[in-house]
Design brief:
InterPro entries: PgpA-like_sf, Put_PGPase, YutG/PgpA
Number of strands: 0
Shape: globular
Number of helices: 9
Structural class: mainly alpha
CATH architecture: Orthogonal Bundle
CATH superfamily: PgpA-like
Strand content: under 5%
Largest sheet: none
Low-confidence stretches: none
Distance between the termini: 35 Å
Pfam families: PgpA (PF04608)
CATH topology: YutG-like
CATH class: Mainly Alpha
Number of domains: 1
Protein name: Phosphatidylglycerophosphatase A
Organism: Paenibacillus harenae
Helix content: 55-70%
């Protein structure tokens, strides 16, 4: 693009890139839906993995979420390739415990779905079930400093979306909040 061409964001391409990069990094939406089910099955026993997938898709349709996914994955890849400047390179590559920007980026996702999202995120981030075990594993040479938190945040947000919708159903509200 030359300096004279006008920039115009293509939302469909951003959404497509988000899904593509998640897959390239080994994260299928089904694995995120499994985390959502893990978070909500005790509260809603009739909840199916397919129900959870609908909510994962809804979360991933949000621009704020897409921005966080694309940003975090790019930073992980740059760290994997050794392309960041010191000391940031080592902090991200080794998932330094006092480096909290990965959690802050993930919280930008959770923030879309209210305070229950924060508690869901904290819980799943501490337990690291399902795909989070693999993403948090440092032995395979891949860097997922941002992605493990982002995936947890997507799951926490989808779980929060379910909780809000179920409450709206109980109250007979036809337009649930936090769509």
């Amino acid at each position: 693009m030359s300096n004279t061409e006008k920039y115009s964001l293509n939302s469909a391409k951003v959404a497509e890139a988000t899904n593509e990069w998640l897959l390239k990094r080994g994260v299928e939406k089904k694995a995120i839906a499994e985390l959502v089910h893990f978070l909500q099955k005790d509260y809603f026993p009739d909840l199916t993995p397919q129900d959870c997938m609908i909510h994962v898709d809804a979360v991933l349709s949000k621009r704020e979420v897409q921005n966080a996914v694309l940003t975090g994955i790019q930073l992980d890849i740059l760290a994997e390739e050794g392309k960041l400047m010191a000391p940031l390179q080592d902090m991200i590559k080794h998932d330094e415990s006092l480096y909290g920007c990965d959690e802050i980026l993930a919280l930008s996702i959770v923030n879309v779905y209210g305070s229950i999202g924060f508690t869901n995120f904290g819980y799943i981030d501490k337990l690291k079930p399902g795909i989070l075990v693999r993403l948090n594993d440092k032995s395979d040479g891949e860097c997922h400093t941002f992605l493990d938190d982002i995936v947890g945040a997507i799951a926490a947000s989808a779980a929060s979306r379910i909780a809000h919708r179920k409450q709206a159903e109980r109250e007979g509200v036809t337009t649930p909040p936090l769509d």
